[in-house]
Amino acid sequence: MAQEAWKPSHNPWITCIPLMVAAFMFVLDETIANVALPYMAGSFSVSRQESTWVLTSYLIASGIAIPSVDFFSKLMGRKNFFIAGIILFTVSSLLCGLANSLPMMVITRILQGFGGGVLLPLAQAINLELFPVEKRAQSMALFGLVVVIAPIIGPVLGGWITTNWSWPFIYFINIPIGILAVYLAKEYIEDPPYARKQENVKIDSIGFFALIGWLSCMQIVLDKGNDADWFGSNWVCWMTFFAVVFALWFFYIQATKKNSLIDLKVFQDANFSIGTLVQIVMQGVLLASLAILPQFLQGLMGYDAYLSGLAMMPRGIGALLTVIFIGTIGSKIDNKILVITGLSLLSIAGFMLCELNLQISTLNIAIPNFIMGIGMAMSMIPIITLSTITLKNEQMTNASGVQNLLKNLGGAIGTSIVTTLISRRAQAHQNSLVENLSNLNDNFLERLQSYTGAFMNQTDPIGAQHMAQNLLYNQMLQQANMGAFRDTFEICALACLVIIPLVFFIKGIKKVKKTQKTS
Description:
The protein is about 75% helix and about 0% strand. It is mainly alpha-helical. Among the domains are: about 1-200, MFS general substrate transporter like domains (Growth Hormone, Chain: A, Up-down Bundle); about 205-260, no CATH class.
């Protein structure tokens, strides 16, 4: 692979600033609204289940926008398209804060998803192109501040803003940040020759329609399938069928059509294919853990939204320290070693979370989260670099769009899997534990008599016995749910272990540089 002659006229590290600011807004908004859903549901007079469309609409829209970045970059010029994405995201953020009904909120979130969905892949592609191969580890370490830390601090920031101000301000804060990002992008970002506006660019309208059908149907199934008992529901079966048909149609079009929406040839590159697969699993583990840990802390430990987000802050601290480490001396260490070490730490943290119980302190949550933050940053940042070092610069925009689309799908699938696991494993543990609530069990009778005596001061003997039975039953449900969370954390840990062998099949930076010199 010969290095392209183009070099940026501005200092690459300064050019990274608008890239980081724009990407930070998008990634932050993936998780910042989670803790505010009950407040939105109250404002719009809808159920909590209906309010989840605020999240679903954003994910669907951003998923549709991500793979189209290469086409629209050619149509408008990459810099212009990037700035247009920031403007659309900023304006729609204002409209989200002003929304006074659920339909209006969903429409504005769709617009926000379209605008924000293009920011992360474009920022990643531009960031990688700004630096030579030997410096990409440092640049991606800086970019890792966005990819890893933003979704972690989202629930904390969202909880604090919602509690101290009101939920519309989680969207209003994007306005000044978006204005700053537009100004900096206009001043410092420039298009290399291969990323400028091209003539006679035709849109793959059929592929775009198939993409919309595929992602819309699949996201609805993943979000609502567990509530509808999955394939026990006719509409889930039909939606799954349509999702598969649209997906096969989309990939057939992309593989056979000349001017397709995305270029699937990047999968001929082994580094890109293997690295993308590793990132899909990691994204699934990251978003799944971010989804179920707050559920555990709020549902079983009695934390409120802000405190549960605060309890997860050590993950952000661990990630931040690791980013600094990779940015300073990480270039001296083989990236493959960093990825393997990071995945091992993720697995260790998952197994540590398997030991949780209902009598733990906050420290028992903080330590595994800190280790998970280190592992996530140590593996995520180098694997992005390794997956793209064998690609040419003109392939970066398309490759970044494809990679981020698949990572989004991995996150959605991972979140859906753990949600189902918790529900099903809780039922299994309940069936196992309920056998102990029997008059033939001496421990049960002893505990029942003890609780009945404690309630005698509040009501009559029959009422006291009923209260004692209810208390024991609720304790059994808590233990069943606790067992389900432990099982789910174990599966996340095993998933990180399983993908470690794939890293050995990726070419390292030194080997790629030797290949470049000989060619």
